[in-house]
């Protein structure tokens, strides 16, 4: 996710602390993840549903795939509840992160993970 408040929303929703990383912006490097979690094979990019977040997800998808990670994308849905996970959490609570749970479930089952 992009920001620390997005991470806090996902932790409040019950996601494991070690599974949610806040990039604090849209910069990230595959080498950071290799260093932090060498066993990691796949990532779900869940950046903001705005122009900057979408551009960053496209760029980061390429970078992470070149580094050998399977990548899935799950920006917040384009609806009236907010452009990021923390805004959605404030407005509608736990159901705000259902799309992300669905993406994680699909990725873990092997349905997705090769791109967009």
Description:
The protein has 116 residues and is mostly helical. 44% of the residues lie in helices and 7% in strands. It is built from 5 helices and 2 strands; from the N terminus they run H-H-E-H-E-H-H. Helix 1 packs across helix 4 (85-92). The longest helix has 16 residues, at 51-66. The mean pLDDT is 88.
Task: Describe the structure in brief.
The chain is mostly helical and 116 residues long.
Structural topology:
Elements lengths: L3 H9 L17 H7 L5 E4 L5 H16 L3 E4 L11 H8 L5 H11 L8
Helix pairs in contact: 1-4
Biggest sheet architecture: 2 strands, parallel
Give the count of helical stretches: 5
Query: Rg to the nearest angstrom?
Result: 13 Å
| Multimeric status of the protein | single chain
Shape descriptor: globular
Number of strands: 2
User: Hey, roughly how much beta strand do the residues contain?
Assistant: 5-15%
Low-confidence stretches: none
Strand/helix succession: HHEHEHH
The portion of residues assigned to helices is: 40-55%
End-to-end Cα distance, whole Å, is: 16 Å
Derived structural class: mainly alpha
Rounded average pLDDT: 88
Query: Strand order across the biggest sheet?
Result: 1-2
């Amino acid at each position: 996710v992009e920001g620390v408040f997005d991470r806090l929303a996902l932790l409040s929703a019950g996601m494991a602390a070690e599974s949610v990383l806040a990039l604090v912006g849209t910069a990230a490097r595959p080498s950071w993840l290799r260093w932090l979690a060498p066993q990691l094979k796949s990532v779900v990019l869940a950046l903001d549903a705005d122009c900057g977040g979408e551009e960053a997800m496209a760029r980061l998808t390429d970078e992470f795939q070149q580094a050998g990670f399977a990548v899935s994308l799950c920006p917040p849905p384009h609806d009236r509840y907010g452009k990021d996970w923390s805004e959605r959490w404030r407005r509608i609570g736990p159901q705000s992160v259902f799309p992300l749970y669905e993406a994680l479930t699909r990725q873990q089952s092997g349905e997705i993970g090769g791109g967009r």
